[in-house]
């Protein structure tokens, strides 16, 4: 806020941002996002440190690791749906799905399954989210003040969890690959040192947001589309009914997920029309010549997903058409379809989100 900013658009602009190294452009979150995610989160660190942390997170979230988590995720979703719907004629779907996504992330990524603990954390994260895109005015009655207060409580909670998890690692009750907390506690940097507590917690908080909040945008779009589009609803219902009939006791596996071809096409089209993130910021580290213009050192560079509505790649871009992503037709020109960003800072959890 209040910084000179250049907005780049089109595939040329996207390529410029995503292929520029840290010696040219660096991540530069808006102030509220920065203090909420943390100054040592993967969003802000660069160079060797970014590669180190990114490799750990991406390694834990690679498809081979996620395959074994699908049955657990399936059973958790069913259990939480039954619990939250019990005795109710109606619910607020988006809030319900957000809470379920949060609970699943807590269990799968952090091995946190105590309902009282995760319910408390969920409420705190809701407060933090309300301060993410507001003026950073630090006064007791502002959303920003309340968000940072909630973040401090989350930090303290995760700090106690780290201490407990470290003890379990030391006595062999958990292994470094059991969850992302154990993974980060076991990491060593290029000089053989363990990661500092603050850096670990900043990245855990960032992962909580990335694993459930941005994905919630897609869930909300899905609910809205199914409510207003009987054709899409019927097609998805038929696909899932067929898959369900072939499962054992209704619990999904990785192979079942791979059969959801039409569902995935719908998800991709929804992310094209309404991307989970509309873009992000970088900061020019030096004077840059781009496309006939000079971007001065210190200026912000903002890339946007405007290419998702480019008629040359997506005819009738305002039209909802999942067939765009079926078969060979899903091959688009480079740097046109970017729901998870791109380059060295592409979302490391894209497989988990998908």
TrEMBL record:
Q: Which GO terms describe its biological process?
A: sterol metabolic process
Q: Please name the Pfam families in this protein's record.
A: p450
Per UniProt, the keywords (alphabetical) are: Heme, Iron, Metal-binding, Monooxygenase, Oxidoreductase
Which positions bind heme?
347
Q: Which cofactor does it need?
A: heme
One GO MF term attached to the UniProt entry: heme binding
Per the record, the similarity remark reads: Belongs to the cytochrome P450 family.
Protein name (database record): Uncharacterized protein
Its lineage opens with: Eukaryota, Viridiplantae, Streptophyta, Embryophyta, Tracheophyta
């Amino acid at each position: 806020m209040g910084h000179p900013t250049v907005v780049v658009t089109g595939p040329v602009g996207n390529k410029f941002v995503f292929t520029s190294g840290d010696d040219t452009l660096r991540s530069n979150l808006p102030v509220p996002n920065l203090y909420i995610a943390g100054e040592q989160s993967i969003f802000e660190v660069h160079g060797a440190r970014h590669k180190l942390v990114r490799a750990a997170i991406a390694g834990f979230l690679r498809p081979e690791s996620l395959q074994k988590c699908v049955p657990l995720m399936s059973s958790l979703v069913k259990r939480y749906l039954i619990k939250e719907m019990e005795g109710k004629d109606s619910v607020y779907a988006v809030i319900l799905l957000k809470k379920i996504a949060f609970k699943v992330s807590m269990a799968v990524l952090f091995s946190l399954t105590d309902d009282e603990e995760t319910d408390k954390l969920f409420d705190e994260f809701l407060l933090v989210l309300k301060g993410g895109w507001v003026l950073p005015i630090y006064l007791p009655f502002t959303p920003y003040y309340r968000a940072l207060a909630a973040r401090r409580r989350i930090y303290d909670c995760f700090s106690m969890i780290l201490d407990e998890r470290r003890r379990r690692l030391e006595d062999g009750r958990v292994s470094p690959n059991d969850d992302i907390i154990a993974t980060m506690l076991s990491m060593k940097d290029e000089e053989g040192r363990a990661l500092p507590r603050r850096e670990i917690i900043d990245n855990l908080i960032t992962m909580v947001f990335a694993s459930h909040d941005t994905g919630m945008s897609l869930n909300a779009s899905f609910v809205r589309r199914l409510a207003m589009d009987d054709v899409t609803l019927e097609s998805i219902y038929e696909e899932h009914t067929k898959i369900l009939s072939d499962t054992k006791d209704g619990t999904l596996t990785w192979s079942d997920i791979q059969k959801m071809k039409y569902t995935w096409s719908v998800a991709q089209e929804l992310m094209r029309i309404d991307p989970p993130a509309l873009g992000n910021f970088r900061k020019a580290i030096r004077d840059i010549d781009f496309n006939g213009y000079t971007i001065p050192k210190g200026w912000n560079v903002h890339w946007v997903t405007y290419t998702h509505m480019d008629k040359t790649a997506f005819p009738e871009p305002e039209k909802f058409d999942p067939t765009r992503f079926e078969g060979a037709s899903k091959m688009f020109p480079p740097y046109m379809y970017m729901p998870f960003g791109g380059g060295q800072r592409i979302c490391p959890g894209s497989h988990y989100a998908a």
